[in-house]
Design a protein that fits this description.
The complex is a heterodimer of chains A (156) and B (510).
Chain A lengths: L2 H27 L7 H27 L9 H30 L1 H15 L6 H21 L11
Chain B lengths: L6 H13 L7 H13 L5 H8 L8 H18 L1 H7 L8 H12 L3 H35 L3 H17 L5 H15 L2 E2 L5 E2 L13 H17 L16 H12 L2 H14 L6 H16 L11 H25 L5 H12 L6 H6 L1 H29 L7 H20 L3 H18 L4 H25 L10 H36 L1
Antiparallel strand pairs in B: 1-2
Classes of the chains: A mainly alpha (156), B mainly alpha (510).
């Protein structure tokens, strides 16, 4: 099975499943009909549209020619490129986690250096200054306009 | 009520503006603040207006209103700048600007795209306020006649339009829009029932829309950019020049019909409270694409798309302002802040204010025309500065944008709910774009999901679930017919053309 098509199928099933779960949650908690109309209509539409997309994708998978042969060196390079967005996303999640623990300014400084390095920036004075200046500017804006200036527990 | 301008009040407005000349001095700082704040995704002009609202206590009424409307005018254009340069709309009303503006940037035509957006914004804004001077009464009265069924149709229309604009087919577009509406219903319903909160307290008020918008557009775009060196990889595309920006300004004037149509759509749809500004730009874009001889070039960097979106986006401010001035109903975040400024000066916007202070109302509308002209000059200077972003290597651009979005989201929610929302919706947006789903449809759905639910509930209550109720609402029927025609007419015309084109050849081959 083509991994792109499998990923697409998983995404459609996840979204449709979420809509069905939202319908279940609404029906089990809502005490007024007015709280159900849009959710019921939306869930039905999501299931119908999701089913159409799944059927189309399955048909396309069956019609597509089967891939064979050993992996080429270029394939592994492409795979590395494909993994980079997920790595950056992982760093972003880490940035938020660090911000909760030690504050947004320091987390910003660390995140900029780590993300910059991942994307190929050299770890020199330039990157350190750039990250420091951005973190200082954002920190100043936080102090001036946000209240509280940094996340405090409870975080939400 | 009437379609003819009240000349006495207009004369009074001119005298008022002459006697309180110092109020004009607030236009330049206001527009500049608006452009800069609008250009920062998440930190919209409305946020800047909220921050600066206390300052207006020390101003007289006209100065305060002119200062705030200047910020709003500048913000309308400013939101289009990150749309064009980074595919990150500064606000929901700038979503359609990115459809063609960003492909123009990737194609090295960022100078022209920004010039077009600026000219279209200036024309759209000035034109809509001039229309309002003439037609403020009829437009406002038409809007107040819109009941829940009409509002529901307008919202569904907006959703279907954005779904129909999907490059990968209507089914995917609708699926994304429905997903957005479902996300929009999360939290407390109007009757106080909680749905889909998963026990997380911060979801009780619903998913924060702006952090979700920033995540879906900005984070997903940055993740897609990481494989390149620059926004546009060809070095000759990195040039920044005033001449090319001015060429863009001139290009916008080559499409007067699109400018006027966009401004009319923006002024009328923008007057619809709550959803007008977010939908007007999509309607104008769709109308322009439908009438184009090359509809397939839209979404690939067609300047007409930028003209249509930006003219409607800016003129929708005028429509929203009309509803606020005449009925005291805030149609957007900006007008809600303006109502606050009115209250700070012990003035209540609404029918009484409109009847008794008509000269002030006209003065506010005329001041907005002047603000639009000021925007042209300030915008040109700012655009030249902002367009240099194409020269920044991705390895420096991406970390800075990611940090700005996280901190910007924290500004909005003032707790970690915003940053967490950015990351979660960034991942969802990235996956959606990877598989060809329009994130714009989900964002618009999320934005109006709870409003759809509200109007659907009201419609069902009033009609008692009887479809025959529609016969009593001719305006709803007209809107429904126009909606269906706008969705299905292009496909039907294409089918007919194909059918006619095939018949002679079939006959020849047979």
């Amino acid at each position: 099975m083509n991994s792109t098509r499998a990923g697409h199928l998983a995404f459609v099933v996840a979204v449709t499943g979420y809509c069905v779960w939202l319908l279940y949650d609404t029906l089990s908690t809502a005490q007024h009909d007015a709280s159900m109309g849009a959710v019921v209509a939306g869930s039905v539409l999501a299931v119908v549209l999701g089913a159409i997309i799944v059927v189309r994708e399955v048909v396309a998978m069956r019609l597509a020619p089967k891939q064979s042969g050993a992996a080429l060196p270029a394939d592994s390079a492409r795979q590395g490129n494909q993994q980079m967005p997920w790595l950056i996303l992982f760093c972003l999640a880490g940035y938020v986690a660090v911000a909760i623990l030690i504050g947004l300014e320091i987390a910003t400084f660390v995140s900029m250096i780590v993300t910059g390095r991942l994307l190929g920036a050299r770890l020199g004075l330039g990157l350190l200054f750039y990250a420091g200046a951005t973190a200082a500017l954002l920190g100043w804006m936080l102090q001036a306009f946000a209240s509280p200036a940094n996340p405090v527990f409870p975080i939400f | 009520m009437g379609g003819i301008v009240d000349l006495g009040a207009l004369d009074g407005a001119v005298r008022l503006m002459g006697s309180e000349w110092w109020a004009w001095l607030w236009i330049v700082p206001g527009v500049l603040i608006g452009v800069v704040s609008g250009a920062i995704p998440g930190f919209s002009a409305a946020v800047a207006m909220v921050i600066l609202l206390p300052v207006t206590v020390f101003m007289d009424f006209l100065s305060a209103v002119i200062f705030l409307t200047s910020i709003w005018t500048g913000g309308g254009f400013g939101a289009g700048i990150p749309s064009i340069l980074l595919n990150v709309p500064g606000s929901p009303s700038a979503v359609a600007t990115a459809f063609d503006g960003y492909p123009m940037t990737r194609d090295g035509r960022h100078n022209e795209a920004l010039g077009i957006a600026l000219a279209a914004s200036v024309i759209g804004s000035a034109f809509s306020y001039l229309i309002l001077v003439l037609l403020i009464d009829p437009i406002a009265h038409l809007v107040v006649k819109m009941g829940p069924t009409e509002l529901l149709v307008v919202m569904v229309w907006g959703l279907t339009l954005v779904a129909a604009l999907s490059q990968d087919g209507l089914v995917k577009g609708l699926f994304a829009a429905v997903f957005g509406v479902m996300l929009g219903t999360v939290g407390s319903s109007l009757m106080g029932d909680f749905r889909g909160t998963m026990g997380i307290p911060y979801l009780m008020e619903g998913i924060p829309v702006i952090p979700a918008l920033v995540g879906m557009f900005a984070i997903s775009e940055m993740l897609l950019l990481v494989s390149g060196d620059h926004l546009t990889d060809r070095p000759e595309h990195h040039a920044v020049g005033m001449r090319r920006i001015l060429n863009g300004v001139a290009e916008a004037f080559k499409h007067p019909i699109i400018l006027i149509r966009g401004s009319m759509i923006g002024a009328c749809i923008g007057a619809v409270p709550g959803v007008g500004a977010a939908i007007a730009n999509l309607m104008s874009y769709h109308a322009t694409r439908r009438r184009s001889r090359e509809p397939e070039s839209f979404g690939r960097g067609n300047p007409q798309g930028v003209v249509a979106a930006e003219s409607a986006n800016s003129s929708s401010e005028g429509g929203s302002m009309a509803t606020m001035l005449v009925f005291g109903i805030p149609g957007s975040g900006g007008t809600a802040v303006m109502l606050g400024a009115f209250a700070l000066h012990n003035i209540t916007a609404g029918p009484n204010f409109f009847a008794e202070q008509k000269a002030t109302v006209y003065a506010i509308l005329l001041a907005n025309v002047v603000e639009a002209i000021a925007l042209l000059v300030i915008g040109l200077a700012f655009v030249r500065f902002a367009s240099r972003i194409v020269r920044v290597p991705v390895r420096y651009l991406v970390p800075a944008v990611l940090s700005a979005t996280i901190v910007g989201a924290y500004f909005i929610t003032e707790n970690m709910a915003g940053p967490v929302t950015v990351v979660v919706f960034g991942a969802i947006g990235f996956v959606m774009r990877k598989y060809g789903y329009p994130v714009a449809a989900t964002v618009i759905g999320l934005l109006i999901g709870n409003k759809v639910e509200f109007e659907l509930g009201r419609s069902l209550q009033i009609s008692g679930g009887e479809i025959s109720y529609l016969a009593e609402r001719p305006f709803t029927l007209i809107l429904l017919l126009v909606m269906l025609a706008s969705i299905f007419a292009p496909g039907a015309i294409r089918l007919m053309r194909n059918f006619r084109g095939k018949r002679p050849s079939d006959g020849a081959s047979g």
